[in-house]
Every structure is written in C-alpha cells, then in structure tokens.
Amino acid sequence: MPTRQTVAASVLAGLTLLPLAAQASPIEILFVGNSFTHGRYDPVRTYKAGFGPNSVHDLLCPSAATCGAAEAGPQVDPAASPPSGTLSQQLAYLQANPSAQYNEPGPYGGVAGIFLQLTKDAGLNYDVSLIAVSSATLTGYLNNTGNEKGDRPLIESAKWDKVVLQDQSFQPLPSTITVSGNPVATRGNPASFQKGVNGLINGIDAAAAKAEPAVTLFETQPLANYGYTSSNPKAPIFGTSTGPAGSIYAPYVGETDPNAAMASDLHNAYEAVAAAYDAANPGKSHVDVALAGDAWVTAMNDNVAVSDPYLANLPSGEVDLWDSGVLDACCTTPVGYHPGPYGAYLDALVLFDQITGENPETLDAEFDPANPDYLDSASYALGIAPDIAHLLAIAAAETVVAGHPVPEPSALALLATAAVIGGVAVRRRRTAKSDLAS
Predict the structure, then answer these.
(1) Which positions ≥6 away from 14 have C-beta within 8 Å?
(2) What is the structure's pLDDT at 409?
(3) For the chain, which terminal residue's Cβ has fewer other Cβ atoms within 10 angstroms, N or C?
(4) What letter would DSSP give residue 319?
(5) What was the pLDDT predicted at 317?
(6) What is d(CA 191, CA 175) in angstroms, rounded to the nearest whole number?
C-alpha cells in the first residue's frame, strides 16, 4: 500500500506536467452523512453554510428558494417556548408539544464547513459539497427511498475527486456485544453498513469521469448515553432514543471504559469494511478511514476532554466534546449524543489530516490570536480558545499517526511516546502538500 510520502511525490510529479489552468482547478470533495456531518446545532450546523463561493455547497439546499423540505422553515428556539419552571417541567412541555421542539433549517455547513476552512488555512484549493439528511444511513442513500429519496444520483456524480461517507452512529456496531461477561444487544447492523458502503462506492466509481475518486469513511464517536447513566438533574438523559442500562440504547453501561469500548467496535467495523472493499476491488477507489471517533478517546486520555459529560462537576480544564444543550436535544436524542463545537472541530481536524496528508498542528491561524487571519479561523468562529484548539489538533495528529487512540501513558512511557510522535510529526511536516493546487 503506498505511503503518504509516495502518493504525495506521485501527485506532485503529475502536477508539474499539467497546464497551469488544470493545476488551478479545485479538488471537488463530497461529504455524505447525517446530522453527525451537518452538525445538528449552531454554531456548527450553519458554519460556512450559504450560497456563495466561500461556502459549503449543500446540494439539498442549493438556494433559499429551493431548499429541501427537511431544511426548510424558520429556526425554533426551544428555550423560548417552554413555560418557566424546572428543567424537568420544560422537557415535559417540549415532549408534549413537538412543534416547539428544535428544528434544523438549512443550508448546512457543519463538519464539512470546518474542513473547508482548515484547507483554506493550509493554502489548499478544495471545493466542498454536502449531502446530509438527519438520521440517514448509507443503505438508505443506496436504496434511494424514504428521507434519502432522490439523493443517490447526486452522490453518484462524475464531478467528485474525493468522497467522504459517514453512516448512522450505531449502524456499524456488532449486533451483540459482551459486557461484564453477559451478551447485550445493540442497534448495530453491520451487514447493512457494509452493503451501503460497497454499493455507494461502486456507484461512485461507475459514474467517475476521471480516475476513481478516493473514498474516506468517517468513523463517528462513542455516544455518551450508550455508556453512562446520569443522576445530574441539570444533564438528564431524556428522549425517545434512551433506555436503561443493558438496553439497546445503553449497551455499554458497565464497561470499565465505555467510550473506549464503543470506539473500538466502531474502529474495527470501519477498518474491516474498508479493507474488505480494497481487497475485493483492486484497481478501484482506494478506501481509507478517518479515525475521528478514536481521536475523541485520545483527547480524553490526554485530559483535554471529559469522558462522562453527565457529571455534576466536570474536571477542571477539560472540555465536553458532545452537545450540552438539554432543551435543544429534546426530544428524540439526549445530550451526550451529537457532537458539540469541540467534537465537530476535532472530527474535522482528523478528516483534514487523513484526506490532505497535512499535519493539523501546523494550522497557525487557528491557534494564534496575533495572526491576522485568526478572526477568519474555524476555532474562533466556534468559540474554541486557541490553546484548546491546539490540544485538539495534537490529539487528531497523534491518532492519525498511531492508527488508533493514543492511551494515557505513564510518566516514563510519555517521554518515549513524545520522542516517537515528534519524529513522525517532523517527517510529516516535511511531506509535500500533496493536495495543493496552485
């Protein structure tokens, strides 16, 4: 399998033979997913969303007049709707009044928008498009039915140089896991996951006008409500997609490290499907995996991010990667389910690293308020402090280099790990910008 270095060298060699006009053409990339890709909440959902040249092209909302039904309509503010009272009373009100619940008007930007800004910070030329329907699965897109009807022809287009595919958060999980020696059912459907991946890639390859597009599978993160319970009245696990410990909505409760356990199952599923496709289809699109979910575990092990977002007192200095708006989350999913700004930013950093081959630790504008471009950075727009943004970039880079979550090291191991990662990082910083079109 070619390395990043050999691929970069080959691409750069090819670029020198192209006319200048061809070199200036942007790399066309499509993100396919659901609310984990488009970002369910502001400021992520609308980041870099719009209809101008510096925006993500939401293909399901190409203009204000032609926005799809799922993205049409004004924003609802749940916090303004419930009567005054306890949080429990407000949640009960929202549950009984669906029209007052949060909705998701488009156009969307989300993780794709953050990725777009990161490429601009790095001097890369990407044109980013998005197809993301909340709760969608890759098999749904493949079958071209239900909420995903009409989307498959947009995915299977000759336009794309690169495609990112993200499935429903629980779909790739094993249908049964073992917790404390006992079998526990999940909502996983690995056969459907593989069918969706294989079918869409085959369709994308068949439509390709150029060489088969490179495909990246976007591994999503562990779900906090799948591994933890909550006794915190300010952060209740509330919604229809919840259940008691040991149910399909909380299968990892009881694991010593439920986030690591779920991330491991997702890691194995995504890597296995990618490897199986490559082995069965030599000469077609190469499939790799952006280990974003693994990077969440690395950030937790690095003490950058909290592991249990339902604690009454979160550890000092640690950020919550999940969403934390209880009223916004009501009433289908709980808090601790979707990524919040920190989590979406970390996802985009991993995708940026995996897809472009660039080390996200070198994105100076994201981490330096003295940089004149800082006010245009994604981290600034999302309200992420420069030091936290840099620590998240380190977690992303560590994970991509290691190919798995980086565990919390002992004092002696920390020195060895730093030396190894530092050496790899130096080599990666010297790698040519394989996707630079200038």
Answers:
(1) none
(2) 66
(3) N
(4) B
(5) 93
(6) 10
| Spatial distance between the Cα atoms of 171 and 135, rounded to a whole number of angstroms | 11
Q: In this predicted structure, what is the pLDDT of residue 285?
A: 79
For the four alpha carbons of 103, 375, 370 and 438, in that order, the dihedral sign comes to: positive
Cα(82)–Cα(238) distance, integer angstroms: 16
Q: What residue type is assigned to position 287 of the chain?
A: V
* The amino acid at 178: T
Please give the pLDDT value at position 18. 37
Q: What is the pTM of this model?
A: 0.89
Chain center to CA of 236: 24
Q: What is the number of residues in the chain? A: 438
| Cβ 282 vs Cβ 197: under 8 Å | no
- Mapped onto helix, strand or coil, the DSSP state of residue 231 is coil
Buried b / exposed e over 378-414, threshold 16 CB at 10 Å, is bbbbbebebebbbbbbbbbbbbbbbeebbeeeeeeee
In angstroms, what CA-CA distances link 82 with 23, 239, 241, 324, 332? 55, 16, 21, 18, 17
Instruction: Give residue 21's pLDDT.
Output: 36
The SS3 of residue 303 is coil
| Domains of the chain: residue spans and CATH | 25-429 (3.40.50.1110)
- Alpha-carbon dihedral angle through residues 366, 368, 369, 373, given to the nearest 10 degrees: -50
The answer to whether residues 188 and 174 touch, using CB atoms and an 8 Å cutoff, is: yes
Region class of 123: left (phi > 0), else alpha (psi between -120 and 50), else beta: left
Sign of torsion over alpha carbons 59, 61, 64, 67: positive
Q: Mark out the alpha helices in 208-291 (DSSP H runs).
A: 224-227, 258-280
120 contacts 378 by C-beta, under 8 angstroms: no
* Per-residue model confidence as pLDDT tens digits over 277-294: 999 998 787 899 999 999
By the 8 A CB rule, do 55 and 77 touch? no
Q: What's the pLDDT tens digit per position in 7-36?
A: 333 333 333 333 333 347 999 999 999 999
Q: ∠ CA(109), CA(329), CA(59), 5° rounding?
A: 25
Let me know: does 57 contact 81? Beta carbons within 8 Å: no
| Torsion sign, CA atoms 332, 334, 335, 340 | negative
Contact 72, 105 (CB under 8 A): yes
Low-confidence ranges of the chain (pLDDT < 70): 1-23, 409-438
CA dist 212 and 235 (Å) reads 46
pLDDT of residue 69: 84
